[in-house]
Amino acid sequence: MTKREPFPPSNFIRDIIDEDLRTNKYNGRVATRFPPEPNGYLHIGHAKSICLNFGIAANYAGGTCNLRFDDTDPTKESFEYVESIKSDIQWLGFDWDDRLFFASDYFEHLYQYAVQLIKDGKAYVCSLSAEEIRKYRGTLTKPGKESPYRTRPAEENLDLFKRMRAGEFEDGTHVLRAKIDMASPNLNLRDPVLYRIRRVSHYRTGDEWCIYPTYDFTHGLSDSIEEITHSICTLEFEDHRPLYDWILDELKLDSHPQQIEFARLNLSYTVLSKRRLIELVEKGHVEGWDDPRMPTISGLRRRGYTPESIRNFCDRVGVAKRDSIVDVALLEHSAREDLNRRAPRVMAVLRPLRVIIDNYPEGKVEELDGPYHPEDDGMGSRKLPFSRELYIERDDFMEDPPKKFFRLAPGREVRLRYGYYITCVSVVKDHQTGDVAEVHCTYDPETRGGWSPDGRRVRGTIHWVSADHSLPAEVRLCDRLFTVENPSGESADFTTLLNSNSLERLTSCRVEPSLTAATPESRYQFERLGYFCVDSRDPSDETLVFNRTVTLRDTWEKILRREEERQKR
Ligand code: ATP
Ligand code: MG
Q1: Could you tell me the pTM of the whole model?
Q2: Which site in 207, 285, 462, 496 is 20 to 30 Å from 526, CA atoms measured?
Q3: Contact 264/234 with Cβ under 8 angstroms?
Q4: Which tens digit of pLDDT belongs to each residue from 448-501?
Q5: What is the largest CA-CA distance in the chain?
């Protein structure tokens, strides 16, 4: 288990656990679980639940957290998803030790529980169609109507249920229902379905079963079988809690975990529903689950997020009882904060413009020193070859600049980072397009390292690479996937709200030669540009590929400052 802060911020869930420990409700045990359904890749919302459940286990003496695959819906589940979920949780820094479970391993156990409910007159086989069941259920304002099959004798129910299992009936002809209360104000208690017939192969149990338990029936019982103490889930299950408790109470189980609900994470400019994420993948709106623009753990990883930055983000978001939308700027801020500390600084030019230093001897190469981190000498430094021909960023030059432009322009002097002062003396244009093709400069040999003996003031410092020594690279500028703050909250189909400029590929970038050994997933700050990560999926011997994690502009800081000012007023 990763070392976590000794005193994490408290929240209402920890308060409940503290109280349960005080009253010795579970004999001093704290056992949580993370219960994903293997029907998609994990996203940042799941990370919140993972940090919460595994975090609680780590913070209480003897605490445990199980990883349980809640795999009772065979239509959409697969081993691929199981493996991706395991690897994402490990990458985030959590460990389930030997506590890996599958609800599908409990199928026989669950079946026996259902038989018990039937024997006790608490469940019956209903032969209404799905449509009829819906009609009989009533509405929030109208009570439901009892099924004509509700009074079937236990013997008949047992026989039918056994034959359902044996595959004697067509899909949809019968279901097993709990016998609770068709007039309950809580719709979940109006004789909810516990089992349905589905002739679908299960990725783990194959064709062993043709009846499958529902989520509500499975979940509490799996928690109980594993002797979970605190079953933490999201708010939409609040209305299911009476059913969760009903099942465990009716079966008189000793292990009766407490279900506690918290608000799910919503992020602005993002969708966090698996159904929608699957649609993005399947319809080809993104390149896959680990597309760097996806809010999946694997997408964020490929984009350059560190596990620490995601964990810090989850801690910061906190745990609440009310739904809200968290600003995606906070997630980006967490990445910046962590990468600022750990990412070596290097120079890369994304849109190169050739600079020729007329008074620099042809063929001469100097090795200039550039520290990898301004505040961390331990990171060391690298040599930057300086030569007569360089590349600078196209936007760092303007032929006809406004007053406030302090970068390179005709007649103006700038500092090359760790290099020399250069002054632009002339430009050469492409006679077809009229664009500036190259810029001629002179350098002042007295200014090596970026300062001058006469102390003259140079306003602008720009980054550069040596034309001959730099390496070619492709850089992918990832931006938000959606154009609106709450894509799930709009009436329009969410795929029409996709940001068509969410990915820009720059294929003629140049990076400094020290990056020749950069390995997949290594993260850098490209000076003045942002944080970038070597792509892990498209390795190529010729060209390095980088994904932009975040720019250097921290909009979250701005949001906080604005908030502070508002409060002062
Ligand atoms: P989705 O609604 O996106 O399909 P899900 O809840 O169906 O997600 P599960 O695999 O069942 O996905 O989720 C596993 C656990 O993660 C559950 O306990 C669920 O409550 C939690 N979880 C899912 N989405 C979020 C979220 N956005 N914020 C916090 N927890 C979440
Ligand atoms: Mg779910």
Answers
A1: 0.94
A2: 285
A3: yes
A4: 998 899 999 999 999 999 999 999 999 999 999 999 999 998 888 999 999 999
A5: 102
Tell me the C-alpha distance between 64 and 99, whole Å.
9
Q: What backbone phi and psi angles, to 5 degrees, belong to 40?
A: 175, 175
Give the pair of three-digit tokens for residue 127: 């032969």
Confirm whether 403 is a catalytic residue: no
Q: Is residue 41 helix, strand or coil?
A: coil
Among 234, 260, 297, 315, name the best residue to mutate to test ligand 1's pocket (greatest count of ligand atoms within 8 A of Cβ).
234
Catalytic residue of the set 14, 33, 274, 293: 274
3-state secondary structure of 556: helix
Token readout for 93 is: 């820094």
**What stretches in the chain show pLDDT beneath 70?**
1-9, 539-541
Task: Give the tokens for residue 81.
Answer: 């998803």
Distance 14 CA to ligand 2 centre (A): 23
Q: Active-site residue 241, yes or no?
A: no
What does pLDDT average to over the chain?
95
Q: Judge whether 274 counts as a catalytic residue.
A: yes
**215 Cα to the center of ligand 1, angstroms:** 13
The response to whether residue 265 sits with its C-beta less than 6 Å from ligand 1 reads yes
Q: Which ligand is nearest to the CA of 46?
A: 1
Asked whether the beta carbons of 356 and 295 are under 8 A apart, the reply is: no
- Ligand in nearest proximity to the CA of 319: 1
Bridge pairing between strands 389-393 and 464-466: antiparallel
